[in-house]
Every structure is written in structure tokens, then in C-alpha cells.
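A quick aside before the break. I want you to see a complete sequence-to-structure record at least once, exactly as it would be stored in a machine-readable document. Don't worry about memorizing anything.
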Amino acid sequence: MGSVQIVTTILAAAITAVAVWLAVRAVMKMTAVIRLGQPAPERFTDKGTRTKTMLTETVGHTRMLKWSVVGAAHWTVMVGFVVLSLLVLEAYFEVVTPTGGLPIIGGWTVFGLVTEWIGILGLIGIVVLMAIRLRNRPTRPGGRSRFTGSTMWQGYFVEWIVLLVLIFGFVIRGFKVATDHFEYPVWATPLSHAVGAVLPAWQSGASVAALIKIIISMTWLIVISLNVTMGVAWHRFLAFPNIFFKRDPAKPAGSGLGPLRPMMSEGKPLDFEEADPEKDQFGVAQVEQFSWKGLLDFSTCTECGRCQSQCPAWNTGKPLSPKLLVLSLRDHAYAKAPYLLAGGGKDLTGEEKATEAQLAHLDVLTLAESNKPLIGTADEGGIIDPDVLWSCTTCGACVEQCPVDIEHVDHIVDMRRYQVLIESSFPSEAGVMLRNLENKGNPWGAPQNTREDWTKGLDFEVPRVGEVEDFEYLFWVGCAGAFEDRAKKTTRAVATLLNEAGVKFAILGEGETCTGDPARRIGNEFVFQMLAQQNVETLNEAFEGREKTKRKIVATCPHCFNTLGNEYGQLGGEFEVVHHTQLLAHLVSTGKLTPVQPVDGGVTYHDPCYLGRHNRVFAAPREVLGDSIQGELTEMPRNSERSFCCGAGGARMWMEEKIGKRINVDRVEEAMSTGAKTIAVGCPFCSTMLNDGVNGKGAGEDVEVVDVASVLLRSLKPEDAAGAPETAPTAG
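That is the input. The structure line, written in C-alpha cells, reads:
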């Protein structure tokens, strides 16, 4: 060992010791913060599926590759980070001797070949990512960036570190080539040999380059260890457990889509019959009341802004950005952590749990952070502004796009639950809707005895459950389908089509009440459970004696479809639920309904959030429309899983949109840009919102918004559509 190698070895050992010590301290701190969260025992079930999903999403990059070029570039960088960590380890042998290498595998040509090409692809990938970040920088002219609000220096820092580590990997090899100490052939390591051809034959060059590579790598580790909220770096480690512990690992898309997480207290679903606000947790009022998985979510956020770029609220000038909401909660959690770890915190009655002695050593900033309300205006020092909380439509676009499976919607609704149930703080106009749900069983406050008025004037009898026993489907009409004038047309169209196809169905009539979706999404879990338990009891009675596969429900409202199929199981209601477009697609494909008259003027289709993104029903409505128009749909730029929300979800249907551009107007402008004269929908909420948007644009005479069922009905000749009843498939 020469003098140069003595120096490089000592320096490498010193900076590594400091970096490792800081990293261990950082990991312990992060673990302590995450453990402050509430229990979530359900996250430890089905470990086999969780492992498979985690490997599929990380190694296969299935969620990132939705972004094509970005995903491919990120995959090469991720693989490079994992595999080329071996070359960082090899650098410790090279600082000792310029001819050093990894024991055993270091001399294998295959190892040289693989690491060479991973390094080359990694270089290309990181340059692409750097170019994308610069092109989308927040300060660029021409609109909002998905990086707006991200800590940009951290992103630049990480990318430059990756670039320099990869470069010095080739510099080390180049010096070995130049000094004739390189064991791999040219065909396996072409770039290393090319670099070696321009470098001098400096015998200590490999050791010095290896030291620089180690210093760069350890500088990265030191910086992220001193910044435990640096998600752009820590996600490299936290993404694996965050994906592993996702709510529903079997789901092909975001596990926070579809049903909401039940209201929890002490890791168990809250039983309202026995719940006590002084002993049980009603929603989330303090950051430590999130589950530990919630705190892991916040820690894992990469600040990539994919959620932000797809959020309808953010894209129409509202203050809500799912990314910034998560970052605010993360920063607050870590700033408040010293107070909590010292024993501080408020109990459910608002009393301080710690003694003065326990809190005596805390600085004034930590104590100030501990007193900030979780929800509050800037003047109140709140972490999340009320306008942010109530701007959410629960469309799920953020959850769909998040590459590390953060469950934004669950966290937002948990905060809403506390505001509604304990603080009685929510937009005033929504209060009418909640009172109507409690008193009338529907958000419009319509009399219950008018639920069957939509049947008047039909030229066939609509059977009621109880009057007939032999029915295949229970037709869940829904509140909109029963009371809202436009939605009634859809209800009548569906009933007519089912009758023409010979499908045996029945309705509950006055026995039906609201599923509770708007109450649950606004945060009033109590009203939801009251309505849901009533409906479950009614439905179980209607299906008494039938096995689950024969307890079939068809619904025209995606919100009812989602609640009945995905959430009633939490309360003992197990049913097979299909959306009417799924049933109609089956009836057309089996010849029970035959479209013969094409719809003119062009048709575009708007994917309802709770049908498409939340429940993955994309094909059925398009199949029905394709058969009805006997041609191709004109798709909007944002369609399928990236469909833009109409603005009505999350109980926003009953809240005034006072900030920014109206979401429905944004969507209508996109629909009208296709040139289609018909905007087809599969949801009564979407129908209302898009109709209002079209009328607001003064285009009511040129563009029509109609349900898929109405489009199909117009294209039929009833005498050719009738057929014998046939059992249709079911989907939940």
C-alpha cells in the first residue's frame, strides 16, 4: 500500500463512519416517528400477496411505467442504484489498492458486462430525468408545474449525486484500463475502455477516483440523514414497506381506491352503538391520530407531483394539492415529534398528557408546533386550511397516480370525519343535504312516497320486491334516479332496456333509501352507518335464502354501485353488484339487445370517477356506445384511469364551488374540443354537472349530455331487441 492509498483508505473510512452513524440515527428517528401513529393490524394480513405486489410494483415498475419515458428512465436509475451499490462497495477495495476488486464475483466477465450496461443505461436515465425536471421547473413560463411546492434543491442534489457516482464508476474503470489492470474485455465493457483510452496511465488514479466516488456517495448519505423529511431520497428505502403495507395488496391499481377505510379507534373499526367521544377516536384531530401507515405514507412521498398534476382541484385553481397536503402533514409530524416522544400530546378530552418536567427540555419552536391546530386558517396557524380539506372531490386521481401507494383520500376523509362529527365544522350549504339524509332518507329532501314516480307512463309494469319472488336482478334506482329529473330519464331507459331484453328485475320502491355515500365522503360516518345498516337489513330480507352469487344488484349510479359493492360488506351486506353499463354490454353482446340505428354527430364518453378509476369499469360503457354508434368513440385527451372529474364527488355536489374555475366547466371544454355533439355519461352526478357546464357555455342547443343507456335506447328498434331472458355475468 502506497502513501496515496494510505490517505485514501483513512479518508474513506472516516467519512463512511460519520455517514453510517448519522444514517443509523436518522433511521431510528424516522422509526420512532412512524411508531407514534395508531395501530393498523389489518396491514399485516396476507403477506404472500403483499410480497408479490411489492416486488411487481418495484421491480416491474408497473405504476411508474404509466408515465412511459419517465417510468423507463426511473427504472434504469433504480436498477442502477440497487445493482451498482456493489461497485460502491468495490470502491472500498480500490482505495486500498488500485488493482482491487470485489472478492469472488469481481473477476467474472458477466459481472463486468452487466454492471457496464446498467451503468450506461443509468447515465441515460438520469440525464433524461434531469432534463424532465428542468423542463417542468416551477419557474418556467406557461402554467403550473407538477413540481410546484416540491423542495427543488433536494431533487437537483439527488440527481447530480447519481450522475457523478455513475461517472466516477467509469473513471475508476478507465484508470484500470489505462494502467492495464482491467480484467474485462472490450466487447463486454466498451465505455470503460473508451474512457481508459483518454486517461493517463496514473497508477494511483483508480484509488483517488474511488475515494471521490465514496465521498460523493457518503455526502449523499450524510445530507439525507440530516434531512429525514427528504422524501425524494428516502423513498428509495421507504417505498418497499409502504407498498408492502398498502390497504388492499390484491388491487391492480391504487389500494386507496374504491371503499373508504372504516372509521378506526385503537386499530379497530368504531362501533357507534358503544362509541364514546371521550374514549374513542372520531376521525383525526392531531397528526399522531393517523395510523402508523399514514405517517409512513407522509414519510415516503417523493415530491414527484404526479398526484398534483392529475388533481381536478389543483388544475382549476383550488388550494388543494394532494402532494402539498401530504408534505404539510409530514413536516408537521416531524416538527412535533420531539414533543410527542417526550410524552406530550392531548387526550381525547383535550387535556395535556405530559407533565411540565417531561416538556421542560423542549425548545419554544417545538412547543409552538405542538399547539398548532391540524385544520385551521393561516391566521389560526393551522396545518391544513379548511379550503384545502373541502376542495377534494375524492376522485382518486392522486391515489391512481402515486408510484408509492400513498392513500390520500383516506387521510382527507379521516380529517373531515373529526371536523364534521366533533367540531360540526363544514361548508354550511352541505348541512341541508345532511339534514335531508337524516330526515328524508335522500339528499334532495324529496318525500319518500314519490320514489316510484319515475315508473308512471311506462308501457309495462315495474315489479316490486315482495310482489314477485322470481327476479334475477334487484334494480337499485338510487336517489338521483328516483328524484332528479334528468336521472329519471336514465332510470326509465334502463328499465325499458331490461324489459325489452327479457331480464327479470324488481325494485324496492319506497323501501329504498340513500346508500349514504355523500354522508360518508363528507365525513359524517354516523349518518352513513345509520342509512347503510337500514339498507343492509332491507336487502338481506329481499335476498333471504339466496347465496351471494344470486344476490344480484344492478345500479345506475357509480356512487351507489361502489357503496353497495365495496362498503356494505363492512356492515354484513354481501352482494354481487353490477353497473347498468356492464349489464347492457352483456345484453348487447349476447344478442338480447340489437342496436340498428346509428347515433349521428359523434359521441365522446366521460368516465365517472367512481365507475372507472375507483372500480376499473372502462370497457363496458365503451362497448355499448361503440355498438350504438356503430363506429369509434371520439376520446377526450384525459380518459379512462386519467379521466378528469366532473366535480361532484366527495359530497361536492352539495357544496358551492367558490374558488377558481369550475371543475365541470373545465371538463365540458375538453369534451366540446372533440367536436362530438353527444357527451355520454354513466353517472347521474356527472350528467348534472356536465349539463350545467354545457348550458353555462351557452352550447345547450349544440351539445347534448345523455346517459349511455339513453344512447343505446335511441339506437334500438324494440321489436328487434326483445329476447328470452338469459343469465348475465356479475361483477363487484
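Two observations worth writing down. The beta strands are 264-265, 268-269, 473-476, 505-506, 552-555, 576-579, 603-605, 678-681, 704-707. Residues 718-732 have pLDDT under 50 and may be disordered. We'll return to this after the break.
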